[in-house]
Design goal:
It holds the Pfam family KARI_N. InterPro entries: 6-PGluconate_DH-like_C_sf, 6PGD_dom2, KARI, KARI_C, KARI_N, NAD(P)-bd_dom_sf. Helix content is 57%, strand content 15%. The protein is α/β, with parallel strands linked by helices. The protein folds into two domains: 198 residues, Rossmann fold, CATH 3.40.50.720; 133 residues, no CATH class. The chain starts with a strand and ends with a helix. The relative contact order is 0.10. The model has no long low-confidence stretch (mean pLDDT 97). The structure holds nicotinamide-adenine-dinucleotide, (2R)-2,3-dihydroxy-3-methylbutanoic acid and magnesium ion (MG) (2 copies). Nicotinamide-adenine-dinucleotide binds next to helix 2, helix 5 and strand 8.
């Protein structure tokens, strides 16, 4: 493991140089990796592992859209694509990539097939950490590991296909074989990770739930809506409000932040913009700190997990979720976005 200094703090990181694919293939050479669930992470991880040369099968509910997708992606019924029960039976590493609520419903099915010596793999610390709510308590004679790609399964696959890798967290919860650590790292390399950052199940789930509800998704959408609304209410056109809130953010400024940091993005804007941003940044921080602390409290207390489980286990929930996404898609803001995106591609 390499020790890398992050802003003055030393952390250990596993790199692809020190743990190459050949080593990962060797560690997992006798394993059948059963990817259970073929939603967003399932396809990314299963296809990357298959292309990397691992022995992978997929388990998915038949007669579901995800089953059809698995067939389209080249998995073959009876050879590499099975029912959840049969894949879990055949797998020596059971990669539980069902939705977090689905993992609760299917736990008795998975548990029954977790014979001694097998490995239980997750991409989230959810089920294990919130065990009072999920009842996911693995038997003592199996390894329990986690590799959580830090991004969408879609990005995991896209980056892999283009020769890159998405960074992932990894963790060991239970080491029955004495080899859980190297299995976790090998799985991390196998699914197409770039760098692998060690964590534990609780830290992974607390940070992940906070991040996606906060800056990555919830806060992002909320602050965009707020600024768009202010600009519209003050008489600006939809296109002006959108361009000044979203288009410039995604097309010009955030790529600069990704490339070389916030100060670099600032330095490439006018002195007028920099002065204003530095002056207002503190007010935004002050306004959002209490909200982010509330959010973390809600994650830590298990309230966010309870809500996820309650909503995710409600029959017909996917339809309700789709209705909420439709409302977002059809709002003036995002309809304006659709038109702006068309202009973007036309100008290429
Ligand atoms: N979506 C991502 O990109 C992402 C990123 C990092 C980690 N994760 C984690 O990976 C895991 C999988 O997430 P996902 O977003 O791919 O899941 P998902 O919501 O896309 O669902 C995955 C599959 O679960 C199946 N499923 C759900 N409930 C079921 C039930 N009751 N019975 C049978 N099948 C059921 C669905 O058919 C679907 O194919 C989760 O633990 C998630 O937190 C996801
Ligand atoms: C892709 C995310 C947001 O990082 C992941 O955590 C998820 O739950 O989908
Ligand atoms: Mg998440
Ligand atoms: Mg995440």
């Amino acid at each position: 493991m390499a020790t890398i200094n992050f802003g003055g703090v030393d952390e250990t990181v596993v790199t692809r140089e020190e743990f190459p694919l050949s080593k990962a293939l060797d560690v997992l050479k006798d394993e059948v990796i059963a990817v259970i669930g073929y939603g967003v992470q399932g396809p990314g991880q299963a296809l990357n592992m298959k292309d990397n040369g691992f022995n992978v099968i997929v388990g998915q509910r038949k007669d579901s859209p995800s089953w059809e997708k698995a067939l389209e992606d080249g998995w073959v019924e009876g050879e590499t694509l099975f029912s959840i029960e049969e894949a879990a039976e055949r797998g020596t590493i059971i990669a539980n990539l069902l939705s977090d609520a689905g993992q609760i419903a299917l736990w008795p099915t998975i548990k029954e097939r977790l014979k001694p010596g097998k490995t239980l793999y997750f991409s989230h610390g959810f089920g294990i950490t919130f065990k009072e709510q999920t009842s996911i308590v693995p038997p003592k004679d199996v390894d329990v590991i986690l590799v959580a790609p830090k991004g969408s399964g879609t990005s995991l696959r896209r980056l892999f296909v283009s020769g890159g890798g998405l960074n992932s967290s990894f963790a060991v919860f239970q080491d029955a074989s004495g080899k859980a650590y190297e299995k976790a790292v090998a799985m991390g390399i196998g699914v197409g990770s770039g760098y692998l950052f060690e964590t534990d199940f609780k830290k992974e789930v607390y940070s992940d739930l906070t991040g996606e509800r906060g800056v990555l998704m919830g806060a992002l959408a909320g602050i965009i809506e707020a600024q768009y609304q202010v600009l519209r209410e003050r008489g600006h056109s939809p296109s002006e409000a959108f361009n000044e809130t979203v288009e410039e953010l995604t097309q010009s400024l955030v790529p600069l932040v990704g490339e070389n940091g916030m100060d670099w993005m600032y330095a490439n804007c006018s002195v007028t913009a920099q002065r204003g941003a530095l002056d207002w940044k503190g007010k935004f921080k002050e306004a959002t700190l209490p909200v982010l602390n509330d959010l973390y409290d809600s994650v830590e207390s298990g309230k966010e997990a309870a809500r996820t489980i309650q909503r995710g286990s409600t029959p017909g929930y996917r339809k309700e979720l789709e209705a909420e996404l439709k409302e977002l898609r059809e709002s003036e803001l995002w309809q304006t976005g659709a038109t702006v995106r068309k202009l973007r591609s036309r100008s290429k």
